[in-house]
UniProtKB/TrEMBL annotation:
Domain of life: Bacteria
Organism: Nocardioides humilatus
InterPro entries: MoaE_sf, Mopterin_biosynth_MoaE
Function: Converts molybdopterin precursor Z into molybdopterin. This requires the incorporation of two sulfur atoms into precursor Z to generate a dithiolene group. The sulfur is provided by MoaD.
SUPFAM superfamilies: Molybdopterin synthase subunit MoaE
Gene Ontology terms, MF aspect: molybdopterin synthase activity
EC code: 2.8.1.12
Protein name per UniProt: Molybdopterin synthase catalytic subunit 1
Pathway field: Cofactor biosynthesis; molybdopterin biosynthesis
Record keyword Transferase present: yes
Family under the similarity heading: Belongs to the MoaE family.
Subunit composition and interactions: Heterotetramer of 2 MoaD subunits and 2 MoaE subunits. Also stable as homodimer. The enzyme changes between these two forms during catalysis.
Length: 151
């Protein structure tokens, strides 16, 4: 299915893939988007739905995003690309209902050296989680539920 969000235009040439999708994410698509001969290191982070949180069993969750989420994600990617000497950067996040084990977010950076890629990938996922308006609705095995990151 196509994403519900209009693609934003990057201001940085290293930003190769930025998307919010309502279907399964592809690690291969993220890695392929960063393919170039100048990259000696590529660091990938995959966030998956786990079966527990804060001592409670999780049965599933849903992600919702504000209409500005893709633009905000693009801004985060551009900023990280400006701060780190990366040759490529990608970030995709899922919305909708997810089951245990589903991929929720995939981010990656490529650079000439691994250290830069590790630092840039950490900054990318941490900034994304802090600034992009995507909210998690968790369902617990005891019948309770919780919104995470909602305003």
């Amino acid at each position: 299915m196509p994403p519900k969000y209009s693609a934003a235009v990057s201001s940085h040439p290293a930003v190769r893939l930025v998307d919010i999708q309502d279907g399964p994410l592809s690690v291969d698509d993220v890695v392929k988007s960063l393919d170039d001969d100048a990259s000696g290191g590529l660091v990938l982070f995959v966030g998956r739905v786990r079966n527990h949180d804060d001592g409670k069993g999780v049965t599933g969750l849903a992600y919702s995003a504000h209409p500005t989420a893709l633009t905000r994600l693009q801004e985060v990617c551009d900023r990280v690309a400006e701060q780190y000497d990366v040759s490529g950067l990608a970030a995709v996040h899922r919305v909708g209902d997810l089951a245990i084990g589903d991929l929720a977010v995939v981010v990656a950076t490529a650079s000439a050296h691994r250290g830069t890629s590790f630092e840039a990938s950490r900054a990318l996922i941490d900034t994304l989680k802090a600034e992009v308006p995507i909210w998690k609705h968790q369902l617990f095995s005891d019948g309770t539920e919780e919104w995470v990151g909602a305003p």
